């Protein structure tokens, strides 16, 4: 069983993840949601008495760093799906990735990740034909997304 700490539980994606785990845990005991943390109860990071196997982060940059601090102190892998990081934040996350496993993606959509891989391959092929070709992808979000556009980035640890 994988014990999960969800950070950003009250955001759009956090709610969706919470509901997915809640519904699937009824029928599948592979996952256990230990903690659901959001800004209302972020002090829970100081009160955790059962170490999770993984942290799933759908929060905001400041809250991500609370999760990263906990993850580093307790050597817990973290999945970061939060967006809106500054370049300085990105560098800090890269430093954390030297000590703990981090999977970071600004878009967890399977289709978007497939599309990004295809475009990357296409760009390489086109540049071997003509180095003056530019490819631009414009990302659109719903009007309430706070940090559109997202930045795509991942780190290996």
State the end-to-end distance: 23 Å
**Major β-sheet, in short?**
5 strands, parallel
**Which runs of at least 5 residues are low in confidence (pLDDT < 50)?**
151-157
Q: Mind telling me the CATH class of the domain at 2-104?
A: Alpha Beta
CATH superfamily membership of the domain at 2-104, which one? Answer: NAD(P)-binding Rossmann-like Domain
- Indicate the radius of gyration in whole angstroms: 18 Å
Q: Give the helix proportion (percent range).
A: 25-40%
Arithmetic mean of pLDDT: 83
Provide the succession of SSEs.
EHEEHEHEH
Write the topology of this structure:
Elements: E1 2-7, H1 12-25, E2 31-37, E3 54-57, H2 61-74, E4 78-80, H3 87-96, E5 102-104, H4 110-129
Parallel strand pairs: 1-2, 1-3, 3-4, 4-5
Gist of the model:
By secondary structure, the chain is an alpha/beta fold. Helices cover 37% and strands 15% of the residues. It contains 4 helices and 5 strands.
Structural overview:
This protein has 157 residues and is an alpha/beta fold. It has a domain at 2-104: Rossmann fold (3-Layer(aba) Sandwich), CATH 3.40.50.720. The chain has four helices and five strands, in the order βαββαβαβα. It has helices spanning 12-25, 61-74, 87-96, 110-129; strands at 2-7, 31-37, 54-57, 78-80, 102-104. A five-stranded parallel β-sheet has the order 2-1-3-4-5, with helices on both faces. The chain is globular. The model is unreliable at 151-157 (pLDDT under 50).
